Amino acid sequence: MTLILDPHNLRKLVSDYNRLADDADWNRFQMSLRSDVDPALLTEGQKQAVVFVTHIENHTPGYIKDYLSRFPVDGYREVRNAMHNRELFHFIVRWGVEEDRHAEALSLYQLSAGIAPDADILLRELIEECIKPFSIGFSEPVQVFTYTFLQEKATQLYYQYLARMVQEPVLKKLLQTLAKDESRHFVFFSRVLDAYLDTFGGKIIALIEEVALSYRMPLYNTLKDYRRRAIRMAREAPGYDRKTPVRILADHLEKAIPTHRDLEIPIRQAISRMLPDIFSGEETRKGEYGAL
């Protein structure tokens, strides 16, 4: 079973995204001018957090390669599939450009702040991780989009919480800018999930639930010393909770119930399994995760 959206519906979602993205450009080189950075205002933990997220963002070639392998634009006998993938390609290339800009902006900041001593040394460290293979691990398109929904929201929230603690003004502004991009990515994937619910209804609930139950951030199984570094990273952003993206996904599904009354029972059952710690009886406790 491979469920894909009608190319005409996907075209509108992608065009709406790119229309906004074309008006949201910013200059990565101007963002991290060495003369504007005050390294004395950074804590050691914040420096290490920047190193960590640079690795996550720098794996963009792997993320994009994985997407393109799942949504190729050639080799199809079925023209409709090729049309779908070509429409999606308009988003993928733009998304890749924006994520790669994040990686380079963070790298430039590391150099400006003295976190990394040399561009060649930094590149070698990044490449040692970047050349490791990456796979989302799901085959159904709606699961690929669900995974990215969670990933984009997690990254957005982390940047927001970290920015609140940072006193160094250039890094604070950079993190806030990255969070805006990630928020825009998240909105795109949330609208894609809405389109899947409208088109396929109950056929996708179990597929979405499977992703939520097994979700891990990218590179958790490849990045050197990931667990220790992730714990330290979270400490630098008080309020950040790695479980929040799944709560937001559950909230997103619950908000779909009024327009999909026939899906109320399977959606609530899925939420109860996704969030066993906050589910009670027939309804989720309102407000616990809807505020984020």
List the helices and strands and how they pair.
Layout (H helix, E strand, L loop, with lengths): L6 H15 L6 H4 L12 H15 L1 H11 L8 H35 L5 H12 L10 H25 L3 H32 L4 H10 L11 H10 L8 H12 L8 H11 L4 E2 L2 E2 L8
Antiparallel strand pairs: 1-2
Q: In total, how many domains does the architecture comprise?
A: 1
The shape, in one word, is globular
* Widest sheet, order of strands: 1-2
This entry's quaternary arrangement is: single chain
Helix content: 55-70%
Question: In the CATH hierarchy, what is the architecture at level 2?
Answer: Orthogonal Bundle
**Structural class by sheet pairing and helices:** mainly alpha
- The level 1 CATH classification is Mainly Alpha
CATH topology: Ribonucleotide Reductase, subunit A
Low-pLDDT runs of 5+ residues are 279-292
